[in-house]
Specification:
Blueprint: E1 3-10, E2 14-21, E3 30-37, E4 44-49, H1 67-81, E5 86-94, E6 105-106, H2 109-116, H3 126-139, E7 145-149, H4 159-162, H5 168-171, H6 182-195, E8 203-209, E9 213-219, E10 222-226, H7 247-255, H8 261-271, H9 273-278, H10 284-289, H11 293-317, E11 322-326, H12 327-332, H13 334-343, H14 353-357, E12 371-374, H15 379-393
Parallel strand pairs: 1-5, 5-7, 8-11, 11-12
Antiparallel strand pairs: 1-2, 2-3, 3-4, 6-7, 8-9, 9-10
Helix pairs in contact: 1-3, 6-15, 11-13
């Protein structure tokens, strides 16, 4: 009987999934990936095989309105598509692991209780991640689950980088800088020895540029700084999130404009960033094609913020050996890569326009003092790796710092 692992990334209205075949190879082969979106409104499902070809899926009943219903539909599709197979484990992306979880963890009632306490740290992500775990536990209680945290990779940040300059009694509740997109950065760090061995042990800035965006400073493959902090709101301008904001602005929203907590939360998470500046779209592709002045301004601001933060991380590293682009914008937008590298030429980047257009892995010239790379990320595979390792070892206790 074939054995499979299921990887889930649950959001407020979507459930992304990937199916891996469990083999003796540490990198389990991808069999299929898909997305069930429109949960609660007009749900629909799509799926593709490892080669990107569409796979047949059944219509999603309109009554699918939560994670439980979505999972039941996905499980039914798996039974129909991979009859005779067995799911041996489910790996989940969980945005926040707090100060305790420096590594992925097998889900137990104790772990789930601790993760619920972190919901205020990531109110628009954590509840849906945990809802998927609870739904699997309810409908498939015999299947072990593994929680993989976006914060874990950054637990190597030095104490001074984790610090938020608030009174000690306020910070005792876990207020510190955590960093996010850790699964993406962990994957990039894991493949650098094969893709670019000459920089794997060096000083590398990785730019995870997508709807959510951040930068990470790596030294010898370990995270020493990130642009995101206590929450996934900090740092770069993103699709609908503003990035770094003067705390006085937040006070003004409450005190000056009299907005409620929910209204401010909605502004910060859903109405700001590229969408807020442009009034056109939160999608970089739309903005690059638009002739609206506000769209151009949004793109200019995005590039400005990335460039500014590259400079800051270069200072933390004491110089850099390489810049790596990844994620949706980083992998697919030659224009954004070109503009960022042009603004960072002072670091010693000699950009290769032809290589950039040709989608080469290395897009800098041979003589460039700082090499520039485009490396596709694979958070799903990272989760599958962790799931396989923990299931094979029978689970491990979460590390405490």
């Amino acid at each position: 009987m074939e054995e499979f692992a299921l990887v889930l990334n649950a959001g407020s209205s979507s459930l992304k999934f990937a199916v891996f075949r469990a083999t003796t190879d540490p990198d389990w082969p991808l069999i299929a990936r898909g997305n069930l979106e429109g949960i609660g409104t007009a749900p629909k499902m799509s799926a593709r095989d490892a080669a990107g070809e569409s796979l047949p899926t059944a219509a999603v009943p309109a009554e699918v309105r939560d994670a439980g219903g979505a999972l039941e539909h996905v499980f039914a599709w798996l039974r129909a598509s991979f009859s005779g197979g067995r799911i041996i484990g489910v790996g989940h992306r969980v945005v926040h692991g707090g100060p305790r979880y420096a590594h992925p963890a097998v889900v137990t009632p104790e772990v789930l209780t601790e993760l619920r306490r972190l919901v205020p740290y990531a109110p628009l992500h954590q509840p849906y991640n945990l809802a998927a775990i609870e739904a699997v536990a309810k409908h498939r209680p015999e299947v072990p689950q593994v929680a993989c945290f976006d914060t874990s990779f950054h637990r190597t940040l030095p104490q001074v980088a984790k610090l938020i300059a608030l009174p000690a009694d306020v910070r005792q509740g876990g207020i510190e800088r955590y960093g996010f997109h850790g699964l993406s950065y962990e994957y990039i760090a894991s493949v650098l020895p094969q893709v670019a061995p000459q920089i794997a042990e060096g000083r590398v800035i990785v730019a995870h540029l997508g709807s959510g965006a951040s930068l990470c400073a790596l030294r010898a493959g370990r995270s020493i700084e990130s642009t995101m902090g206590f929450t996934a709101l900090d740092g770069l301008c993103m699709g609908t999130r503003p990035g770094a904001v003067d705390p006085g602005v937040i006070l003004y929203l409450f005190q000056g404009l009299g907005l409620s907590v929910k209204e401010v939360e909605t502004i910060l998470y859903k109405k700001s960033g590229l969408l807020g500046i442009s009034g056109v779209s939160n999608d970089m592709r739309d903005l690059l094609e638009s002739s609206e002045l506000t769209a151009r301004l949004a793109v200019d601001y995005f590039v400005y913020r990335v460039t500014k933060e590259v400079g800051a991380l270069a200072a933390v590293l004491g110089g850099i050996d390489a810049l790596v682009f990844t994620a949706g914008i980083g992998e697919n937008s030659p224009e954004i890569r070109c503009r960022v590298c042009a603004a960072c030429a002072w670091l010693g980047i000699e950009f290769d326009l032809e290589a950039n257009t040709a989608k080469a892995a290395c897009i800098s010239r041979k003589a460039s003092a700082v090499s520039v790379w485009v490396i596709p990320t694979n958070e799903e595979l990272m989760i599958a790796r962790h799931t396989g390792r923990l299931l094979a070892s029978g689970g491990t206790r979460p590390s405490r710092e």
